[in-house]
């Protein structure tokens, strides 16, 4: 299958000037925009397809929050289709995927983000040139993405769509234990790195261990998450078997896990 080698072009709303993309501007710690990116699509075992999306936060330090709603939505369908509302600094590949049916044809799924008075949108589609090897693995190294599982007998998942756990509950200020089991082929001989993110939610989340390092064949990753305000949250854990996302453009080497959490006062 073809491998995606370039960043997807942005579909920019008419109110945005081209220079607002800022791709040639010098790095800045804060004050810049975030834009969605379409990474490509891959086939699911049931005949459906997954459209993989990421983002580019042009700040080198500032984390940005754009709540799900009129300023951060996916269409058609529900405005919330698993996209992030919190954007860590710099480029992040394949942070969620939208599943479309086998007969999706030439239709499109569009993710729109509005921030700092500007609007950016990106369309995902099944154009042949955008097919990626997110599940089968990277051909030159025979490397497949790690598999994640939240319970011993629960489902596992690989790639950007990954797997979602059952919903958890906690209270403000009470650490919530989070655990995930990782299985990997070990073909890269590199350790599997886990990184924990707040993916959606209005408050701040503190992780006792923001990262875990496992053996090349996996293991169990653990952290605690402490929330500073009530609400609905989505935590993302990324398992990557190539250090520092070195193959992010190829979409070959990581898996997302998602944990819905309800936080009460």
Give the helices and strands, then pairings.
Layout: E1 11-12, E2 34-43, E3 49-57, E4 64-65, E5 72-75, E6 86-87, E7 90-100, E8 109-115, E9 118-124, E10 147-149, E11 156-157, E12 163-164, E13 168-171, E14 176-183, E15 192-200, E16 205-207, E17 211-214, E18 218-227, E19 231-240, E20 254-264
Parallel strand pairs: 12-20, 13-20
Antiparallel strand pairs: 1-9, 2-3, 3-7, 4-6, 5-8, 8-9, 10-11, 10-14, 14-18, 15-17, 15-19, 16-18, 19-20
Amount of helix: under 10%
Count every helix, treating DSSP H or I runs of 4 or more residues as helices: 0
- Alpha-beta classification: mainly beta
What top-tier CATH class of the largest domain fits best? Mainly Beta
Task: Write down the Rg.
Answer: 18 Å
Biggest β-sheet description: 6 strands, mixed
Poorly predicted tracts of residues: 1-22
Order of helices and strands: EEEEEEEEEEEEEEEEEEEE
Average pLDDT across residues? 88
CATH topology (fold) name of the largest domain: Immunoglobulin-like
Q: Report the count of strand segments.
A: 20
Shape: globular
The termini sit apart by 49 Å
Number of domain units: 2
CATH architect. name of the largest domain: Sandwich
- Could you tell me the strand content as a percent range? over 45%
